[in-house]
Amino acid sequence: MRIVDIRESTVPLASGMRNAKIDFRAMTASAVVIVSDLRRDGRNLVGLAFDSIGRYGHGGLLRERFIPRLLAAAPDDYADRFGTNIDPFKVWDIVMRGEKPGGHGERSGAVGLIDAAIWDLVAKIEEKPLWRVLADRFRGGSVETRVPAYASGGHYRPDGDLAALADEIRRSRELGYRRVKIKIGGAPLSEDLRRIETVLDAVGSGDDLAVDCNGTFSREQAIRYVTALEPYKLAWIEEPVEPLDYELHRELRAMMATPLATGENIFSAPDLRNLLRHAGLHREHDLLQMDVSLSYGIVEYLAMLALVEEHGWSRRRCLPHAGHLLSFHVVAGLGLGGHESAPDANSIFGGYPEGMSVADGFVSLPDAVGVGIERKSNLYAVFRDLVAT
Ligand SMILES: [Mg+2]
């Protein structure tokens, strides 16, 4: 089994959405295709991966370092012990050759794309959905038939008003979600409180609403917000402050009853160790949102889960960032707490492929082999030319 080509392209995702920190007009993402020499149905079997959204594409790093390293490796270097499939752990070691420890920066997202495409290929070679491969390898086959998911949205929009926000939330509920998350911190507190109350009118309970501050607040602003939000008894407050200021997390944690969620900008197991050691988070109460794809992929995420459990947390406290399909398979296959879903199936990174359904806040498991990108037509359109080249 040989990897014969790796292709990538940068996909523009221009949109008028905005959170407290960035707008998405110039946003891009990378699509990656790994081509094997195995033939199925008259074509080479391929592994596909699509970026997590929010940190731009990773084309430069892929082209200059990570793709050439993997293409230069001998097939025996990445073969599994039976010689019939690829070993994702060996691939990880190959692409990370020559990389210094620490300073993870953007390379963790580039490596995460290679890792994701490899796992898609591995599952296709086994002719199983990726969730099944992960459950079989790492959980003794155990899996629940329905995966909890919440609808992530409520961005600030150029034409945004409260009626449009309420409409978006109602649409999410009609699609079958119960819990929703909206952005805050990009408007004055009084306006954000109106947004929160508008959504609470639609969902009925604070437990069905989470808010995401995207790391925007100073210490003083965070204290003001956290204090003002306490009476609403929200599901969680996400990234109130700079994600690497653990001392400030500790201070806020001590004054909050509402659960604190963070981790989507922690990109490695060593960084997670620091978060668990120093940020004062409560293992019974708080939530960890490391992004599988931006954190070097599933190989590193497994190391993160081991750390989570070593520190006495349940993996059910993990709600990985990002609404993409890879993350869904990891949540389902590794028994995590739930999937962050971008409910709008019209966006290439939103919704679920054909054959998956949402009801009462849970998503059904797909039966397509691999990650199933081929079954989501607007997302697969991004890959069509890359696959055909
Ligand atoms: Mg977030």
Task: Describe this protein's structure.
The protein is α/β, with parallel strands linked by helices. It folds into 2 domains: 3-127 and 380-388, Enolase-like, N-terminal domain (Enolase-like, domain 1), CATH 3.30.390; 137-376, Alpha-Beta Barrel (TIM Barrel), CATH 3.20.20.120. It is 39% helix and 16% strand. The chain has helices spanning 59-72, 75-78, 88-95, 107-126, 130-138, 162-175, 189-203, 219-229, 246-255, 269-278, 298-310, 325-334, 377-388; strands at 3-12, 28-40, 43-50, 146-152, 180-183, 209-212, 236-238, 260-262, 287-288, 339-341, 358-359, 362-364. β2 (28-40) and β3 (43-50) form a beta hairpin. α6 (162-175) packs parallel to α7. The model has no long low-confidence stretch (mean pLDDT 96). Residues 212, 214, 238-239, 264, 321 line the site of magnesium ion.
